[in-house]
Amino acid sequence: MTTEQLEATTTTPAVAYLLTWTTAGTWFSGEQQGANAPFAAKRTPGARRDVAAVSLSVPQRDLVEATIRDCCQQQGWNLIATNCRSNHAHAIINAAADPQEILSTLQSQTAEQLTAGEPSRDSWWEEKGNIRTMNDNDGVQAAAFYVGVILRRI
């Protein structure tokens, strides 16, 4: 058995990716935010303090979610769940694509749509986000319940 064959049999492919990204100027490196503080603090290393904090309105949040759905459909990615809050967005996606590329595409597409409605703002999202790889269906189901159900009630 070659090294490549061994790697192919021992590597578990990702079932889905949980992508989370924050609005510009909202969370700064090392700051603790709420009950999910350890996760939040890691999400945005080096948020820009020179950018006014972005807080998305309900119509803007709806636009972000619609854009994520449209983008996933156009790219052939399976969108499992999405939710946009006032200062961050979540998407759970199953795709045979680089998760960093998926995150970058979603950030740029949503920023483009938001800018169409508010051209005076030139920055909507922090440059980086968080990517969690989920390798089992139980993890995907739990994340989908959180993103698709629990956050809708908040």
UniProtKB/TrEMBL annotation:
One of its GO terms (molecular function) is transposase activity. InterPro entries: Transposase_17_sf. One of its GO terms (biological process) is DNA transposition. This is Transposase IS200-like domain-containing protein. It comes from Blastopirellula marina.
